[in-house]
Design brief:
The protein is an alpha/beta fold. The protein is built from nine helices and eleven strands. The protein has a six-stranded parallel β-sheet with strand order 3-2-1-4-5-6, sandwiched between helices. Helix 1 packs across helix 6. The longest helix has 14 residues. It is elongated, with a radius of gyration of 18 Å. It starts with 7 loop residues before the first strand and ends with a helix.
């Protein structure tokens, strides 16, 4: 996906996983359009989310009417109805949503979703929604949070790091994080040092307190 932050995201299917993704996206400041086919679920979530609607997500016309085609990404969190899951991904593809994430319940489901247009497919437990929320909405390429509130992320570099030795960026003082490793295109990861000069196209491993790592990956 693109290296820029995605601010507006549709979450389709409000089971345990979908609710976890939607809640976390809202918590970290994203605009969330939550969609479910069951009115009782929509009513339950109305107090938590600013924009939650009952709709048939398998209909491209309905998704377009809701403005889903204008959003930066969509997460298809439907798990129990495999047909609805696949048809929703097809509908999102048809209306041109640029980044589509989808939940799969097994390997066969994953392959079908990929073939029908999903850019990213996950097979998470319900409590993995928080991780996906970070991956879908920032430059993060992977996110691992330890139990003590400390996180490691794989991410692309913000502009403030590009072309400068790490010693000049004052990362720890300014942002409270540390660049642990750097991977250049076509090369393996190497340990970062104070003399390391980050280049556009590099992939970084960054560590630090979870909130500070989250804030760092939202830098332009």
């Amino acid at each position: 996906m693109a290296d820029t932050r995605i601010d507006a995201i549709a979450v389709i299917g409000l089971g345990r996983f979908g609710k976890a993704v939607a809640r976390e996206l809202a918590r970290i400041g994203r605009d969330v359009l939550a969609i479910d086919e069951k009115m009782e679920i929509v009513q339950q979530m109305a107090d938590e989310l600013a924009n939650v609607v009952q709709a048939d997500s398998t209909s491209p016309a309905t998704l377009r009417r809701l403005g889903v085609h204008e959003l930066g990404a969509a997460v298809v969190a439907i798990g129990s109805d495999l047909e609805a899951s696949v048809l929703t991904v097809l509908a999102l593809t048809e209306i041109g949503v640029p980044v589509i994430w989808a939940k799969a319940v097994n390997e066969r489901h994953r392959r079908i979703l990929q073939r029908t247009g999903a850019h990213h497919v996950v097979m998470p437990e319900a409590d993995r929604g928080r991780r996906v929320a970070h991956l879908v909405s920032t430059r993060m390429m992977d996110f691992i949070e330890l139990d003590d509130g400390y996180a490691f992320v794989k991410t692309t570099p913000p502009q403030v790091l590009v072309g400068r030795p790490l010693s000049d960026t004052q990362l720890r003082e300014r942002f409270g994080v540390t660049v642990v490793g750097v991977k250049r295109p076509g090369e393996g990861f190497t340990y970062a040092t104070e003399e390391t000069v980050v280049q556009r196209g590099d992939i970084l491993i960054v560590s630090g307190p979870t909130e500070k790592v989250e804030r760092f990956t939202r830098l332009a």
